[in-house]
């Protein structure tokens, strides 16, 4: 969820208002970058993910999710509650011409704004809306959006690994939640070159596509078990990057940049290998990928060696 954009009132002065709205615009840019990279990763690896689904690369926002819905609606020039937040670059939503804050009045004939919601700060209706889109795509093979300017767009999906990407939280974290990859507003990787940020996102996506959360639920979250899943996620990074069109060597570059600052040295969490060890594991995978580059797609389902027992 994006932070509340600043809304002018009698107590606001010009500099404070401009600064707050500048932060909001920065968050919009971060979210677009996250969605663009995420789309390349999930669409580029779709044929190798066991749980790929039809997807259109569209993220909507619901005014009910904000603390002051009426004020945000006025700021964005909306009459209703539902609008485009991001259309991932290269996705069906992007190719259809959907743009930031474009108002949506119905999804396959249903107006999500008619669903009951709390008056403010309600994330559940937004989740229901995105679940509804996924359901329509799975059942009908397309979804039709009615736009406020009295026209409709029918979007046909492509396959993508089943994972959503969210910018959320006033923190520096990156995490995988099983079905989502979540980056905090202050995640340091946003300052890195795109391919290295993509590597960080690929690490979290790897947890989802390898079903690490389910495995840990079944086998326990001991330090050694978590360490195995972290190592697997590190090792899968360059494979995911290669199929997304990124340089797989960016995975090792990311870790070499990230590790010396964030590893913690002798005080590091024992759930992770040392950053220098992690670079070595990643580079070993890169060497194997280089041998497979002549193939049409780097098939990690066949060539990536798992370290944990899977069904």
How would the blueprint of this fold be written?
Blueprint: H1 14-44, E1 52-55, E2 58-62, H2 69-76, E3 82-87, H3 92-95, E4 104-107, H4 124-140, E5 143-147, E6 151-155, E7 158-161, E8 164-167, E9 174-176, E10 180-183, H5 194-209, H6 212-219, H7 223-243, H8 250-262, H9 275-292, H10 300-303
Parallel strand pairs: 8-10
Antiparallel strand pairs: 1-7, 2-3, 4-5, 5-6, 9-10
Helix pairs in contact: 1-5, 5-7, 5-8, 7-9, 8-9
Written account of the structure:
The model is unreliable at 6-11 (pLDDT under 50). The protein has helices at 14-44, 69-76, 92-95, 124-140, 194-209, 212-219, 223-243, 250-262, 275-292, 300-303, and strands spanning 52-55, 58-62, 82-87, 104-107, 143-147, 151-155, 158-161, 164-167, 174-176, 180-183. The chain is built from ten helices and ten strands. It has a three-stranded antiparallel sheet with strand order 4-5-6. The chain has a three-stranded mixed sheet with strand order 8-10-9, covered by helices on one side. Helix content is 45%, strand content 14%. The chain has two domains: 14-44 and 52-160, PDZ domain (Pdz3 Domain, Roll); 163-303, no CATH class. A hairpin with a 3-residue loop joins strand 9 (174-176) and strand 10. With 311 residues, it is α+β, with helices and mostly antiparallel strands. The protein starts with 13 loop residues before the first helix and ends in an 8-residue tail after the last helix. The protein is globular and about 55 Å long.
């Amino acid at each position: 969820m994006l932070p509340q954009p600043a809304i002018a009132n009698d107590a606001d002065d010009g500099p404070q208002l401009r600064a707050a709205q500048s932060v909001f615009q920065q968050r919009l840019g971060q979210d677009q970058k996250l969605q663009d990279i995420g789309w390349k990763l999930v669409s580029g690896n779709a044929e190798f993910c066991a749980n790929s689904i039809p997807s259109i690369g569209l993220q909507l926002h619901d005014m009910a999710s904000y603390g002051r819905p009426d004020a945000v609606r006025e700021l964005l020039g909306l009459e209703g509650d539902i609008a485009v937040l991001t259309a991932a670059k290269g996705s069906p939503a992007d190719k259809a011409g959907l743009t930031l804050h474009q108002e949506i009045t119905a999804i396959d004939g249903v107006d999500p704004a008619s669903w009951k919601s709390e008056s403010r700060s309600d994330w559940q209706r937004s989740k229901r809306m995105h679940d509804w889109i996924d359901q329509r795509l799975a059942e009908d093979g397309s979804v039709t959006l009615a736009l406020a300017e009295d026209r409709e767009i029918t979007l046909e999906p492509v396959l993508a690994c089943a994972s959503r990407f969210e910018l959320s939280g006033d923190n520096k974290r990156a995490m995988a939640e099983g079905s989502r990859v979540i980056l905090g507003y202050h995640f340091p990787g946003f300052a890195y070159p795109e391919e290295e940020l993509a590597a960080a996102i690929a690490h979290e996506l790897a947890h989802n596509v390898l079903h690490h959360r389910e495995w840990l639920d079944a086998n326990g979250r001991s330090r050694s078990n978590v360490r195995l899943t972290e190592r697997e996620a590190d090792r899968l990074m360059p494979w995911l990057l290669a199929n997304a069109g990124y340089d797989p060597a960016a995975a090792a570059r990311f870790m070499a940049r990230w590790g010396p600052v964030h590893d913690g040295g002798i005080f590091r969490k024992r759930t992770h290998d040392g950053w220098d060890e992690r670079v070595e594991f990643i580079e070993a995978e890169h060497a194997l990928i280089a041998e497979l580059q002549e193939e049409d797609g780097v098939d990690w389902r066949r060539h990536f060696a798992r370290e944990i027992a899977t069904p």
